[in-house]
TrEMBL record:
<dbReference type="InterPro" id="IPR003593">
    <property type="entry name" value="AAA+_ATPase"/>
</dbReference>
<dbReference type="Pfam" id="PF00005">
    <property type="entry name" value="ABC_tran"/>
</dbReference>
<dbReference type="InterPro" id="IPR003439">
    <property type="entry name" value="ABC_transporter-like_ATP-bd"/>
</dbReference>
<feature type="region of interest" description="Disordered">
    <location>
        <begin position="218"/>
        <end position="240"/>
    </location>
</feature>
<dbReference type="InterPro" id="IPR027417">
    <property type="entry name" value="P-loop_NTPase"/>
</dbReference>
<dbReference type="GO" id="GO:0005524">
    <property type="term" value="F:ATP binding"/>
</dbReference>
<keyword id="KW-0067">ATP-binding</keyword>
<keyword id="KW-0813">Transport</keyword>
<keyword id="KW-0547">Nucleotide-binding</keyword>
<feature type="domain" description="ABC transporter">
    <location>
        <begin position="7"/>
        <end position="235"/>
    </location>
</feature>
<dbReference type="GO" id="GO:0016887">
    <property type="term" value="F:ATP hydrolysis activity"/>
</dbReference>
<dbReference type="InterPro" id="IPR051782">
    <property type="entry name" value="ABC_Transporter_VariousFunc"/>
</dbReference>
<protein>
    <submittedName>
        <fullName>ABC transporter ATP-binding protein</fullName>
    </submittedName>
</protein>
């Protein structure tokens, strides 16, 4: 028998008032695997990610992480699950380095300064180590969020549109980063609009439209052979 899933969502749905943001959905993610969620704005993919992270409770269904209920406030979950989301998570009065120092201290990282120097260089932020978030470009802010996830231990990495505001070179480095994470045994759940990124890093692609799964399978099956992701986009449009 194989190892149990690192992340398991069973029959999860989410309703806000009269609006069904997410129909019943199943998802499993193993250690060392990347699953990509594709879809247009409002398709339900970010809702699914928040539920997977334990930041929102599903209306129906259950979520488990390594066999235990997913709860964002559980110290065991907080120690092992890293989430990269909104740039609003940055503290306006802390420098880039101070952000990473705070995360490192919170997670008991040893030899933190040497590791922080490595992460700053990896994310091309060394020259901005003393900068406040307000002085950074949108792409640099995104790199800071990624750096904060990399500076801490993690078994599960949840990424909400990490390619946003990144130039082509930075997106290539992002793909290399995700590949390195999975190779090291980290499970990655990736929300993205970018079919080319999903094709490069994911072993499974799920396409959502209006809260429903409209395609699910290997990237070669779900995505077009071109770089623009026309197959998943067409499937999403047909489902509307």
């Amino acid at each position: 028998m194989g190892a149990p899933p690192l992340l398991q969502l069973t029959g999860v749905s989410r309703v806000f008032g009269q609006r069904k943001a997410l129909a019943k959905t199943d998802l499993s993610l193993s250690a060392g695997q990347c699953v990509a969620l594709l879809g247009h704005n409002g398709s339900g993919k970010s809702t699914l990610l928040r539920i997977a992270a334990g930041r929102d409770r599903p209306t129906t269904g259950r979520v488990s992480f390594d066999g235990m209920p997913m709860n964002e406030n559980d110290p065991r979950v907080r120690a092992r699950v890293a989430v990269v989301g909104d740039t609003a998570a940055c503290y306006p009065d802390l420098t880039v380095r101070e952000h990473l120092q705070l995360v490192a201290v919170a997670h008991g990282v040893e030899d933190a300064e040497e590791w922080i120097d490595h992460i700053l260089a990896d994310r091309l932020l060394s020259e901005h180590a003393r900068s406040l978030p307000g002085a950074l470009s949108s792409g640099q802010l995104q790199s800071l969020l990624l750096a904060a996830a990399l500076v801490r231990p993690r078994d599960l990495l949840l990424l909400d549109e990490p390619e946003q505001r990144l130039d082509p070179g930075a997106r290539r480095r992002l793909a290399e980063l995700i590949a390195a994470e999975t190779e090291s045994g980290v499970g990655v759940l990736l929300v993205t609009h970018h079919g080319e990124l999903a094709a490069a890093v994911a072993s499974r692609v799920i396409v959502l439209s209006e809260g429903r799964v409209v395609a699910d399978g290997k990237p070669s099956k779900v995505l077009s052979t071109g770089p623009d992701g026309t197959t998943w986009a067409a499937a999403a449009e047909r489902a509307r």
